[in-house]
UniProtKB/TrEMBL annotation:
<keyword id="KW-0812">Transmembrane</keyword>
<feature type="transmembrane region" description="Helical">
    <location>
        <begin position="29"/>
        <end position="49"/>
    </location>
</feature>
<comment type="similarity">
    <text>Belongs to the binding-protein-dependent transport system permease family.</text>
</comment>
<feature type="transmembrane region" description="Helical">
    <location>
        <begin position="102"/>
        <end position="128"/>
    </location>
</feature>
<keyword id="KW-0813">Transport</keyword>
<keyword id="KW-0472">Membrane</keyword>
<dbReference type="InterPro" id="IPR000515">
    <property type="entry name" value="MetI-like"/>
</dbReference>
<keyword id="KW-1133">Transmembrane helix</keyword>
<feature type="domain" description="ABC transmembrane type-1">
    <location>
        <begin position="97"/>
        <end position="280"/>
    </location>
</feature>
<protein>
    <submittedName>
        <fullName>Phosphonate ABC transporter, permease protein PhnE</fullName>
    </submittedName>
</protein>
<keyword id="KW-1003">Cell membrane</keyword>
<dbReference type="InterPro" id="IPR005769">
    <property type="entry name" value="PhnE/PtxC"/>
</dbReference>
<feature type="transmembrane region" description="Helical">
    <location>
        <begin position="257"/>
        <end position="279"/>
    </location>
</feature>
<feature type="transmembrane region" description="Helical">
    <location>
        <begin position="149"/>
        <end position="172"/>
    </location>
</feature>
<dbReference type="Pfam" id="PF00528">
    <property type="entry name" value="BPD_transp_1"/>
</dbReference>
<dbReference type="InterPro" id="IPR035906">
    <property type="entry name" value="MetI-like_sf"/>
</dbReference>
């Protein structure tokens, strides 16, 4: 059945049109004002941070020159020999790279266990005590606020040079970062199963174990895999302060101006991170039930 469309009188339509134009103009003014404030803040930040674009562009050639010197001379006729000369210490670097991955793995595992234990105490929907929740949250904040390299310096002084300092430093920082993420996952869980288990006579720990944990495990695993990928990068930097891994060898190459060694080690680290990212992406997608769209 056809319906007639009513048309507003001219004076009402003109009034609505004018109000619409005024609202659009007001929003444009607000947007321009926000952009102006943002521009002022950027200029002030650059001034306080002593960011000088002229210095950047005048010294840009030094950066490109350094990058160019790290690229080895490769010739098609002697490509195999050139690559072998480029990666002359492949066995030693591979061993140190494996050590870096193990440091990241142990740091992620230990930090993940600590985060799992603390996240429930930091969740507002599970803990009614403000003081307990406050203490757990502040502890997690402390762990993730202090940079890993600062913790690594402390542990190197305490335990000496070696992977142990890197593992402990990554574990503490991982506990703080994952603890916050885990707590947010717990706070988004459905509380009806938890309340039902409690009403059936279960203890708080039993209710968390059987009503909350099954809901949050996929999210926990996804965040843990992502953190492991981040920790592989972080473990590479730990070697700069003597905390084991390939970072120390990388720093030696930079300090001694072994240009081709710098590019060789850097490419190995990049390739390792790419492989880990691809593998963990596949695992995360399986855990959350993600399926790629088909064409």
């Amino acid at each position: 059945m056809a319906r007639a469309i009513s048309i507003l009188p001219e004076h009402q339509l003109a009034g609505l049109t004018q109000r619409y134009k005024n609202e659009i103009g007001r929003r444009r003014l607000v947007t321009l004002g926000c952009l102006a404030v943002l521009l002022v803040l950027v200029v002030l930040s650059a001034s306080f941070a002593e960011v000088r674009p002229a210095t950047f562009f005048s010294n840009l050639g030094n950066f490109t020159s350094y990058v160019g010197r790290t690229v080895p001379d490769l010739h098609w006729a002697t490509l195999g020999a050139d690559i072998r000369a480029w990666y002359w210490n492949l066995d030693g670097w591979a061993k140190l790279l494996g050590e870096t991955i193990l440091i990241a793995y142990l740091g992620t595992l230990m930090g993940g266990i600590a985060a799992f234990a603390l996240c429930f105490l930091a969740s507002a929907n599970l803990v009614s005590s403000p003081s307990l929740r406050f203490g757990a949250r502040r502890l997690l904040e402390f762990c993730r606020t202090v940079p890993e390299i600062v913790f690594a310096l402390f542990f190197v002084i305490a335990f000496g040079l070696g992977p142990m300092a890197g593992v402990l430093a990554l574990a503490i920082h991982t506990a703080g970062a994952l603890g916050k993420l885990f707590a947010e996952v717990v706070e988004n869980a459905d509380m009806k199963p938890f309340e039902g288990v409690l009403s059936g006579g279960a203890s708080w720990v039993q209710a968390v174990r059987f009503a909350i944990v099954p809901q949050i495990l996929p999210g926990f695993a996804s965040y843990s895999l992502l953190r492991f990928e981040i920790n592989v990068r972080g473990a590479g930097v730990m070697g700069f302060v003597g905390a084991g891994g390939i970072g120390q060898e990388f720093l030696v190459a930079i300090r001694n101006f072994y240009y081709t060694d710098v590019s060789a080690i850097l490419l190995m680290i990049i390739a390792t991170v790419v492989v880990i990212d691809l593998v963990t992406e596949k695992i995360r997608h399986r855990l959350i039930g993600f399926e790629a769209p088909t064409r």
